[in-house]
Design a protein that fits this description.
Blueprint: E1 5-10, E2 13-18, H1 29-40, E3 48-53, E4 57-59, H2 73-89, E5 95-99, E6 102-104, H3 106-112, E7 116-120, E8 124-126, H4 140-148, H5 150-159, E9 163-164, H6 165-171, E10 176-178, H7 183-195, H8 199-212, H9 217-232, H10 235-245
Parallel strand pairs: 2-3, 3-5, 4-6, 5-7, 6-8, 7-10
Antiparallel strand pairs: 1-2, 8-9
Helix pairs in contact: 1-2, 4-5, 8-9
This protein binds ligand T3D.
């Protein structure tokens, strides 16, 4: 029985709702464990994950009323936040963050760890850490400079001001900002698109992009060749070419 998240699956899309709206979906120990478990143990039928928040916020980061968390932050990050971030990045299926409202602190960085981030126009992203005398964590110092460059990353982290969704999209921090009333519809369409797609290719793309900032061109070309070799031996490649030649939509199976 889950206490802090809601999980439902429909047509290959698993929807995970952070569900502590009275605290703007702040992360406590139970939520970190439940989210990590849900993303690690995906049922076979799941081909895309949507992560969103209940109520008017996406996630306000660490639950600041959780006195236990203040005792040894290093251990909490190592034992609870790191597994949660790895569970997002290593999730077998692509993860869409549907950012329905403010995403602050580790809540912002949880969203930014997703593969595709779609935000409601009223949402914002706040590196809130320095407001309470902390340093950005939960992968923010890794993700954000890669997404927006060092100058904007530094400004976001030192100034701790909200970056509105539209600006976040203009900066390349997220994929898209959409009118609030259209968030669910846009996310549902993207999730259905990914769930019907060549999911093995998606895993390969995520692996290639994760490696791209770590290695030189020669190593990246070798990785591309290995990943493409595997894709070329797959049923989805045969189906994709057949569908093109027969002028029909492909029916991908992820193999
Ligand atoms: O292990 C470790 O501790 C290290 C890890 C650290 C990771 C971190 O994430 S550190 C950063 C923690 N997060 C923050 O500092 C953000 C705190 N929250 C805010 O700045 C604001 O609440 C928001 C900008 C997110 C939203 O502002 P607003 O005005 O829309 O809403 P509000 O009125 O401030 O919040 C609504 C309620 O949610 C309120 O409760 P109340 O007064 O109605 O009973 C507020 O206290 C509660 N709430 C919001 N954020 C948190 C929270 N309660 C606990 N923890 C929160 N993070």
């Amino acid at each position: 029985m889950l206490e802090t998240i809601e999980v439902t699956t429909d047509n290959g899309v698993m929807r995970v709702v952070l569900n502590r709206p009275e605290r703007m979906n702040a992360l406590n120990r139970t939520m970190r464990a439940e989210l990590t478990g849900a993303l690690r143990d995906l049922p076979d039928e799941v081909r895309c994950v949507v992560l969103t928040g209940a109520g008017r916020g996406f996630c306000s980061g660490q639950d600041l009323t959780d006195a236990g968390a203040a005792l040894d932050l290093e251990a909490t990050l190592r034992d609870e936040y790191e597994p949660m971030l790895h569970a997002v990045r290593d999730c077998r299926a692509p993860v869409i963050a549907a950012v329905n409202g403010v995403a602050a602190g580790a809540g912002a960085n949880l969203a930014l760890a997703a593969d595709i981030v779609i935000a409601a126009e009223s949402a914002s992203f706040i590196q809130a850490f320095t407001r309470i005398g902390l340093v950005p964590d939960a992968g923010g110092t890794w993700f954000i400079p890669r997404q927006v460059g060092a100058a904007r990353a530094m400004g976001m982290m030192l100034l701790a001001e909200p970056v509105p969704a539209r600006q976040a999209a203009d900066w390349g921090l997220i994929w898209e900002a959409v009118p609030d009333a259209r968030l669910e519809e846009v996310v549902a369409a993207r999730a259905a698109q990914l769930a019907a797609g060549p999911t093995g290719c998606y895993r390969a793309i995520r692996e290639a992009l994760a490696a791209a900032f770590q290695q030189d061109l020669a190593a990246q070309l070798a990785l591309e060749a290995r990943l493409q070799g595997a894709a070329g031996r797959g049923a989805d490649f045969r189906e994709g070419v057949a569908a093109f030649l027969e002028k029909r939509q492909p029916r991908f199976t992820g193999r």
